[in-house]
Amino acid sequence: MADFNRMSSRFGIGNTVIEYDDGSSQMVNDNHFFSDRKRLDFYMWKCNAGLDFLYVHHDGKVHPCDEHDGIILYDINKGGEFVFPRHPLICPKHDCPCLFDVYKEKIFK
With contact defined as beta carbons under 8 Å apart, do 29 and 10 qualify? Predict the structure, then answer.
């Protein structure tokens, strides 16, 4: 990881703001999350998957998340009315595939 960081032209350039409960914030780049596996675990966080992001699987099924969440919002092959989710969900996954695409908030301690 250190060699990658050293050679990466974008290393050190932040593109994501982390806001902490104490009111402080930190600008980080994508490498921040991958350098510690625990930073990818959003289990039981409030997640805007389905609101900020939709995943269309190759079989035509539309999901709020692309990590086999088991939630089918719509099936392109069957048609009908597509009803968008109205509320965030509680993430059931330990590994977040939509890490940078979806707003998340830790609501449980």
Answer: yes
Do 104 and 67 reside in the same domain of the chain?
Answer: yes
Least Cα distance to 105 among 87, 93, 88 occurs for 88
Beta-sheet strand order (sheet of 104-105)? 89-90, 46-47, 104-105
**Domain region containing 11:** 1-39
Provide CB contacts within 8 A for 34, sequence distance 6+.
1, 40
What gap in Å lies between CA 16 and CA 28, rounded to an integer? 5
| 51 and 79, same domain (yes or no) | yes
> Is 102 within 8 Å of 93 (Cβ atoms)?
no
- Give per-residue pLDDT as tens, 23-78: 999 888 777 777 777 778 889 999 999 998 898 999 999 998 877 778 889 999 99
Round to the nearest angstrom and report the end-to-end CA distance of the chain: 30
